[in-house]
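Task 17 of the worksheet. Students: predict the tertiary structure of the chain below and write it out as structure tokens. Keep your answer in the requested format; marks are given for formatting as well as content.
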Amino acid sequence: MPHSNISNGSPAAVDWSAIETVLLDLDGTLLDKYFDDYFWEEYVPLVYARKNGITPARSRSLLLQRYRTVENTLHWTNLDFWSEQLELDIVQLKLSVDHLIALRPYALDFLDFLEQLGKEMYLVTAAHPKTLQIKLDKVAIGHRFHRIICTDDLGLPKEEPDFWYRLARYVTFSPGQTLLADDTAGVLDSARRYGIEHLIFIAQPNSRSDIRHHHEYRSIAHFNELMPPPLADPAKPAATSR
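Model answer:
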């Protein structure tokens, strides 16, 4: 069944009076996923190729296959796991390209907007704790949230419906009055099965990729689509038509 907040890429105004709690993903939602995509798909394969005396293309093919074997599990984002598996210092490699970590457009504006509305805000992320620290050191947004929850804390990926039951032990929220924004459809699927009512799909998690709306979930390219347009500056005269 289609969900009540589907817009097929044409979001209407959110009824913020119906929402008490906002759950936000980190990578691809608040942060530009270009950093992660470049790191895992280009930079790590290049370093791995040099270390093992193979071509970058061969390295990339091998690593993408290995990544897929643990997709949607906690190993997927576990830096210690990949450091051991690849015999590379993944933390140090991330630090060497951390200048690529950046907020997505309107992310700070959206957090300001939610604060002004007095919403309970929680960061719910699959980022490994070591990755999370690197990123929050670069973009100081951790203090904006009432709490930060990593999937490692709960022992399940967000794609598992039981994740949300475990989250409810950490965070008090009413599913019918909660908005979740995430760039992964599988996460929204599991949240929907749990009963979270307001689901937002991020259609351009990587700023260098195309916008791809989801056919089931309300899709936005940027968070300004969830906020009312700014009021006209009263100090400026209104434009007149000629």
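Marker's comment: Residues 16-32+102-226 form a domain with the Rossmann fold fold (CATH 3.40.50.1000). The radius of gyration is 19 Å.
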